[in-house]
Design goal:
Distance between the termini: 140 Å
Structural class: alpha/beta
Helix content: 25-40%
CATH class of the largest domain: Alpha Beta
CATH topology of the largest domain: 60s Ribosomal Protein L30, Chain: A
CATH architecture of the largest domain: 2-Layer Sandwich
């Protein structure tokens, strides 16, 4: 060509199709040699890498599973520990720091033994009385749900099963509005709940009835009573054969107890054991019926269980230097029986839930107590009973008892104070209502005071008189002036004076109704000093006198 580039080859593909891909360039001989010398793909090394990757993945997954299983194990351990401690379960209905669900009237929780046996029926009855229909109870493992309908709206009451301690903790955390407890609130618990009111007085502490723990043996066992110290030795494994208990029987003792979880330490068996551990041979059963059944099938067995159990024999109990007491209704009602137990409902009195307070008031009302009486629990219903006075009682007390009837409650006092306790406050109101309803002449009322034996006898006569005066003044404030106010000092102990629990029971006031028309003068004869007025020492007639200014308050 004229431009001299005829010898330049044309890439006709590019000319025809300028967008076509460029043909691969043929490598030069040197580059081809280098490519031939490069290492080829190693199939064995690739399989080893995959094997290592899979192994690593398995290890990672194993570690994750191990951590997960460890977490599950720890969570289960915490759940079991919480259950053993009787803690109230943390669920949506019992969330800490959250208000109760809108459809929940109130939540009550605490000792599990009170839930299905007492609270379920009481709450159901309360809802019906308050106008709810279609009331039914659904019981789960740890929560009982009572539902009802009123005004076209459904509502619930939740009963959480745990322990007394767990109930007080949950109330402190605002996860409950009320606590059901088989023991009295402890000082530390009351302090933590002080923002809700005084949990040691009748405004917050409601006693709904009295339960009793029975010491039972097989019907073929010849013994009929047992000393509480001996019972403690049996429970701790120190006494293992019946021959160590009575000369009338022998054989290896087997022990059957009710499993009460975190409430065991405050039960009669737990108190008798104290710091001692029960032997591994003890059989723990889930309910009172199971204990009674096990004892009925084992002639060498002994058990402690609540009432309502047949097929076994209940033993009378002896405490040191106190008389033998059986578990009859009167002994339980007056708390003379050593294993009589108060059943409590605690509610806040200051800013507490109004539904919970209304329920607690219903439970101690006559209607609520009628229901309690059907549960094989001793209700707080008052009555006058003809009782046999002990043969070792002072002669005038025995004479008086032949012509008088005793009320089926005793007044007891706060520890270290001359103030009637929360049960006594309510019992005095019930007594005045009983007097008015039955039109009983107030001159027939005798108020008899007692003390423990700590200190001199003269001092104890004064302490018992002061207690009797306190009760007489409380009755006078309610419109009833007793005919006789009398001190018996440290006579007639109903509990052992060797321990504080027994001494508290001995610090009491009995109320008697004399035969019409009025109480006679109680004559002590040669056993007492006669005052210049001709009235025996420790006896006073007429209206009670208030304590003088600066007069010491009895502590013993």
């Amino acid at each position: 060509m004229a431009d001299g580039r005829d010898d330049v080859p044309y890439d006709w593909d590019k000319v025809i199709n300028p967008n076509s891909p460029k043909k691969p360039e043929k490598p030069s001989p040197r580059k081809a040699s280098a490519l031939r010398k490069a290492p080829r793909f190693n199939l064995k090394l690739d399989l080893l890498g995959w094997l290592m990757a899979v192994t690593g993945l398995v290890i990672v997954v194993g570690i994750i599973v191990l951590f997960y299983m460890s977490w599950l194990f720890q969570a289960e351990g915490q759940r079991v520990a919480a259950q053993d401690q009787g803690q109230i379960p943390i669920t949506e209905d019992f969330a800490a720091g959250q208000p109760k669900p809108a459809d929940v009237l109130f939540r009550i929780g605490g000792t599990s033994s009170m839930g299905p046996n007492v609270m379920m029926d009481l709450v159901s009855a309360w809802m019906r009385v308050r106008g709810f229909s279609s009331v039914r109870a659904d019981q789960g493992d740890s929560v009982i749900e009572i539902t009802g309908t009123r005004g076209g709206k459904s509502a619930r009451v939740l009963i959480a099963l745990g322990s007394s301690q767990g109930g007080f903790e949950a109330l402190t955390q605002q996860r409950l509005e009320a606590v059901m407890s088989s023991r009295q609130v402890l000082p530390g618990e009351a302090d933590r709940l002080s923002a809700l009111g005084n949990f040691t007085n009748a405004s917050s502490e409601k006693i709904i009835g009295l339960d009793a723990s029975l010491v039972v043996v097989n019907r073929n066992n010849p013994i009929n009573r047992i000393d509480t110290e001996v019972l403690g030795r049996i429970l701790s494994g120190e006494f293992t054969d019946w021959s160590q208990v009575s000369k009338d029987t022998s054989g290896r003792i087997s022990i059957k107890l009710e499993s009460l979880g975190a409430d065991f330490s405050s039960s009669p068996a737990g108190r008798l054991l104290g710091d001692r551990e029960p032997p591994e041979t003890v059989t723990f059963l889930d309910d009172p019926a199971g204990v009674a059944d096990a004892v009925s099938r084992d002639e060498k067995a002994i058990g402690i269980t609540r009432r309502g159990t047949g097929g076994v024999k209940a033993l009378a109990l002896n405490e040191r230097n106190a008389r033998s007491v059986g578990a009859d209704d009167f002994s339980i009602a007056t708390e003379t029986y050593p294993f009589a137990e108060r059943l409590f409902v605690y509610v806040g009195s200051s800013g507490g839930d109004p539904n919970a307070r209304d329920f607690a008031d219903f439970a101690i009302s006559p209607a609520g107590q009628e229901l309690v009486a059907r549960m094989e629990i001793t209700p707080l219903r008052l009555g006058a009973v003809k009782v046999l006075t002990p043969p070792d009682a002072p002669s005038d007390y025995r004479t008086f008892g032949r012509f008088a009837e005793r009320m089926n409650f005793d007044i007891r006092f706060y520890d270290g104070a001359n103030q009637p306790d929360s049960r006594a406050e309510e019992d005095l109101k019930r007594f005045v209502a009983f007097i008015n309803k039955n039109q009983i002449d107030k001159r027939r009322i005798a108020v008899l005071g007692f003390a423990d034996n700590v200190g001199a006898r003269v001092t104890n006569i004064g302490l018992a008189q002061s207690r009797a005066e306190t009760v007489a003044l409380a009755l006078q404030g309610l419109g009833v002036t007793p005919g006789v106010v009398r001190s018996y000092g440290d006579s007639l102990p109903v509990g052992s004076n060797s321990d504080e629990r027994g001494r508290i029971r001995n610090r009491r006031v009995e109320i008697w109704l004399c035969a019409p028309p009025a109480c006679p003068l109680i004559n002590l004869g040669a056993e007492a000093e006669i005052t210049t007025r001709g009235i025996p020492a420790g006896v006073r007639l007429g209206p009670p006198r208030p304590p003088a200014e600066g007069e010491p308050v009895p502590k013993g």
